[in-house]
Hints:
The chain is built from eight helices and seven strands; from the N terminus they run αβββββββααααααα. α4 runs antiparallel to α6 and α4 packs parallel to α7. β4 (46-47) and β5 (54-55) form a beta hairpin. The protein has two domains: 13-93, no CATH class; 102-185, no CATH class. The chain has helices spanning 13-16, 73-78, 82-89, 92-119, 121-126, 144-154, 157-172, 182-185, and strands at residues 25-31, 33-34, 43-44, 46-47, 54-55, 57-62, 68-71.
Amino acid sequence: xxxxxxxxxxxxxxxxxxxxxxxxxxxxxxxxxxxxxxxxxxxxxxxxxxxxxxxxxxxxxxxxxxxxxxxxxxxxxxxxxxxxxxxxxxxxxxxxxxxxxxxxxxxxxxxxxxxxxxxxxxxxxxxxxxxxxxxxxxxxxxxxxxxxxxxxxxxxxxxxxxxxxxxxxxxxxxxxxxxxxxxxxxx
Length: 187
């Protein structure tokens, strides 16, 4: 909100919004979700007291006069209070929440790859290895299934994200034609 009102100019945005008196202090973070029934999509379960938007990550803030309220990460960043931003980004609660989200995403990606490999093992076994490799001991040509299983065991997070895309493209290729992969490109 732009204004020339001398009483408002220079005030903290949370103070102008009526959320309390400055200075404001970050006091914690929580996650609130809503799921209407089992199997339904998970939606944000909290509401930002500053803008009214639905929020999943609720950042708890306390004003100098003792009022506590909840805001989302966008609003806490957009008010421009460097102290609040630093406080929430360095808090153990926020770091723990971020680590849990990363771990959950990694588990979901691994599960998606496992499901994709299991559901299409027969087709992948019929497709030659993307780089044309053969088994070192037997000399038998390796398959896309061997490649996918090796990649699942040995690649990192970014590699697993690429692996999903490569497997889907490989399985959608007409007549089992191979596609160019990062292994063939040298990357």
